Amino acid sequence: MSKFDTHTTYSLNDLGRVDFGGTPLAVLGHPIKHSVSPAMHNAALAQMQQLNSRFNDWNYFRFDVAPEDLAEALPLFHKHHFLGLNLTIPHKVDALNLIKGISPDAARMGAVNTLVWDEFGYDGFNTDGYGLKSGLQNDLGASLKGATVVLLGSGGAARAAAVQCVLDGCKKLYIGNRTPERLQNVMDVVHAMPNGELAEAFAITDLPTNLPENGIVINATSLGLKVSDPAPMDVSLLAKGWKVYDMIYNPSQTTLLKEADAHGLATANGLSMLVHQGARSLEIWSHVDVSSHAMMTAALHALELPPRYD
Ligand code: NAP
To answer: Ligand 1 centre from 121 Cα, in Å?
Structure first.
């Protein structure tokens, strides 16, 4: 058996061929080569190992798993005692039918990104909503509680964000999307929650006209992933008290953020969301508090971005 290397992108064939050490963790996705999660988690683990020898044999790996292989993959990871798994595109929804338990929040969000091993199988959690609320707090000093939120998008990330907004007690939630059917799906989920009636749908090209002086825009569309993408909404319609959070972190400044910046609004990209969802996953697996600082430094380094000092 060969010894592991945390920089390698592994495949299912490597399970049983490579010694992944005492307590392996991994992210599964497709594609996965450019994931910064191994850098983030191994940086946090290195810090945890200095404080507690229990974590000395913990390591985090990346595996490329095609969608059609996920059903075969999860029992294999379970057999090889992978204590924790992160799931990313395209596995977050498909895994729901392949695990033994799911947390109530993840069930509402309709997706899992964190799996925890026990002897009978994996239990699923979703830390994206937590990552979002921590990112908003950290980067923009913005709390969802009592806030007016304009949420753009109705995919998996938007659904997690919408559920988190309602759970955290936002005052009003406007959700806009290009495709009405997907928008309706998210509205149905939110309206089924206690206080869900505070959510209102709008067509993404037709921003509500009665917005207050301040609030939070959250972009959960994929518009902005290409540098040439236009902004998904016209931020010049917003009063100066608004804050704009784009879940996209690569590129680090989308057209939406550039335009919001030029309009004088406070802005932040989604790197803090990525870091905080990762920190929360590691807390679920380890049962200790995890500092997001080492993870942020590692993520910036992996993305070849300058360090931050906050
Ligand atoms: P998804 O399920 O594929 O949803 C994509 C969303 O973008 C849909 O609402 C889609 O609208 C909308 N969209 C795509 N192209 C558009 C266009 N040209 N004009 C207007 N809307 C458009 O993706 P997802 O998993 O929810 O992820 C959404 C974004 O969040 C991605 O950029 C992803 O990288 C980011 N994200 C970041 C984090 C983080 O930790 N920072 C975590 C998760 C996701 P339709 O319904 O009309 O197609």
So the answer is: 30
Nearest to 3 by CA among 27, 21, 25: 21
Predicted structure pTM score: 0.96
DSSP state of 33: T
| Per-residue pLDDT at 310 exceeds 80 | no
Task: Determine the pLDDT at residue 3.
Answer: 78
Residues with CB under 6 A from ligand 1: 128, 131, 153-158, 177-179, 182, 204, 220-223, 225, 232, 247-249, 270, 273-274, 277
Q: pLDDT tens-digit profile of 85-120?
A: 999 999 999 999 999 999 999 999 999 999 999 999
| Statement: residue 182 has pLDDT above 60 | yes
- 294: CATH: 3.40.50.10860
Has 92 been annotated as catalytic?
yes
67 and 105: one domain?
yes
